[in-house]
UniProtKB/TrEMBL annotation:
InterPro entries from the UniProt entry: HATPase_C_sf, Ribosomal_Su5_D2-typ_SF, Ribosomal_uS13-like_H2TH, Ribsml_uS5_D2-typ_fold_subgr, TopoVI_B_transducer
Gene source species: Vitis rotundifolia
Keywords: ATP-binding, DNA-binding, Isomerase, Nucleotide-binding, Nucleus, Topoisomerase
The protein's name in its UniProt record: DNA topoisomerase VI subunit B transducer domain-containing protein
Record's keyword annotation contains S-adenosyl-L-methionine: no
Domain DNA topoisomerase VI subunit B transducer: 234-393
Subcellular location: Nucleus
One biological process term in Gene Ontology: DNA topological change
Pfam annotation, one family: Topo-VIb_trans
Length: 505
């Protein structure tokens, strides 16, 4: 954070810098101010901020609270300090009053969800009690350094603006005429289409007219035309999803499931805003309850409250037929992870705690993403069932080897006696086998060993056929040991939202 901006960034409500159209964690910078106001109301203590930007030779330190009535920062200390260690980042210390006993589970649940969606970050949580036996220290370790791309600020889509926004864009634009304004302040309006729109607005409009001279009635006409006209959908290039690789890694890192499937959908549109849905479904795992365990994220931020009304919860409970995917909704430990990113998250209520179920485009995308994960899991579950059936068959065959061996040996011994007394003659290979039985070259033990080898051979052939159908090589796999992430290594990174590969030189 720039040194001179820190007091206003924390001590003045509605002084945020996120007014452009962009995928953001917040919108108006209210979260930091609410923490400061909560601290002032509960303990009366100021907050302390340390910040150092890249390339700065100093650390900005600020101790302040807020004058709630005048909406201005009350600065206790604001200075620049030496930064000999070249530290970079931001650190905020706030003292608040809260009920740890009541909200412990919520706090730890939030931290765990943050660790799932951001496996490239490290979290250390400490609770220090008056008695040492009640202390809590939990570390959520970093597992990758592959981070999602930074969200890109974009222009507004014509179908996503209202009258107030159009007026604000007109007041802030540097474009002089209406044609340039339509071309450069909105996405998906080229020059030819802008000229056509102006022609449809009526005789009071012309491409060269000054955009600042538009009357209120003319602005209303522009808004009406935006609602009526057809525009290409905005692209999702401005969005920054967690990525399938990171989502899968986070789930595996925190839950240790028996199996997991992830899916990342393509960009879609609602009300002129692009959005993307990523989903993961896991089976089994550590500290996972039986039934559905739902993890919701909006712009990579965990949502904890109002879960029952959320589109993800309602979709998982009511619109997914888990049995058709060989998943027992009541008995299996099922983790459902859905992350929605957009330039506008359609939260319900002022708390920003859940996404409504009334936007069909988002509901459909959530359902489709979960189903894609379930299809992957069904394939794995079916293979697991087949392998279990195969093991059971081998176990059953091996169980009957002693009885089968005894019966076969008794029959062979009677046949050998008949052959020796010449009451019944056998020729060629049969005679040779009976002679070996008489001379004890073939015994119960040798028959048992032969049958056991036969069972092993049949099992191997079936496993080979199964592996061939599954596309798995029968050659033994070589153990590979991955090096830890260390500084000073020369390497090239190849990564996409689905995988990451590091080539050491």
């Amino acid at each position: 954070m720039p040194h001179d901006d820190i007091p206003n960034m924390f001590g003045r409500v509605l002084s945020g810098t996120k007014y452009g159209l962009k995928q953001t964690r917040g919108k108006f910078g209210l979260g930091a101010k609410m923490a400061l106001i909560w601290s002032k109301m509960s303990t009366g203590l100021p907050i302390e901020i340390s910040s150092s930007m890249k390339g700065q030779s100093y650390i900005s330190f600020c101790r302040l609270d807020i004058d709630i009535h005048r909406n201005i920062p009350h600065i206790h200390l604001h200075e620049k300090r030496d930064n000999k260690e070249r530290w970079r980042g931001a650190e905020i210390q706030v003292v608040i009053e809260g009920n740890w006993t009541t909200y412990r589970s919520k706090i730890l649940h939030y931290m765990r969800q943050m660790a799932v969606i951001t496996p490239y970050a490290q979290f250390l949580f400490k609770f220090v009690s008056d008695t040492s036996d009640k202390n809590v220290t939990i570390r959520f370790a970093r597992r990758t350094d592959i981070m999602p791309p930074v969200p890109i600020e974009t222009k507004y889509h014509p179908s996503a603006v209202d009258l107030l926004l159009i007026k604000r864009l007109i007041s802030e634009t540097s474009r002089e005429n209406l044609l340039q304004f339509l071309q450069h302040e909105f996405v998906n309006i080229g020059k030819s289409y802008a000229e056509r729109l102006i022609g449809e607005m009526g005789p009071d409009f012309s491409p060269k007219m000054a955009v600042k001279s538009l009357t209120s009635q003319q602005i209303v006409r522009i808004h009406q035309l935006f609602r009526q006209a057809k525009f290409d959908d905005p692209s999702g290039d401005c969005l920054s999803p967690a990525g399938e690789y990171n989502l899968r890694l986070g789930i595996i890192k925190e839950l240790h499931p028996d199996m997991v499937a992830t899916y990342s959908g393509s960009a879609q549109v609602f009300e002129g805003h692009p959005f993307m849905v990523e989903a993961g479904v896991s089976i089994g795992g550590k500290d996972v309850k039986q039934g559905l365990n739902i993890f919701r994220f909006a712009n990579r931020i965990p949502l904890l409250f109002e879960q029952g009304a959320d589109v993800v919860t309602r979709t998982a409970l009511k619109r997914i037929n888990w049995n058709s995917y060989k998943i027992n909704q009541a008995q299996d430990k099922i983790g459902v992870f859905v992350s929605i990113v957009s330039t506008k998250i359609p939260f319900k209520g002022t708390g920003k705690e859940y996404i409504g179920d009334d936007i069909s485009e988002i509901a459909s995308a959530v359902k489709s993403s979960i189903q894609q994960c379930c299809i992957q899991l069904k394939s794995k579950i079916v293979k697991k069932i087949q392998a279990r059936v195969q093991q059971e068959r081998k176990r059953n065959l091996s169980k009957y080897i002693p009885d089968a061996t005894g019966a076969i040996y008794d029959v062979l011994r009677e046949m050998a006696q008949l052959h020796a007394s010449k009451k019944k003659r056998y020729e060629d290979e049969d005679a040779d086998v009976l002679r070996k039985v008489s001379t004890h070259s073939i015994t119960k033990q040798t028959l048992s060993e032969k049958l056991a080898r036969h069972v092993e051979q049949v099992d191997y052939e079936m496993a080979l056929e199964y592996a061939t159908q599954s596309g798995v090589s029968e050659e033994p796999r070589e153990a590979i040991y991955l090096q830890s992430l260390e500084d000073g290594k020369n390497f090239i990174d190849f990564h996409s939202p689905v995988f990451a590969f590091r080539l050491y030189q």
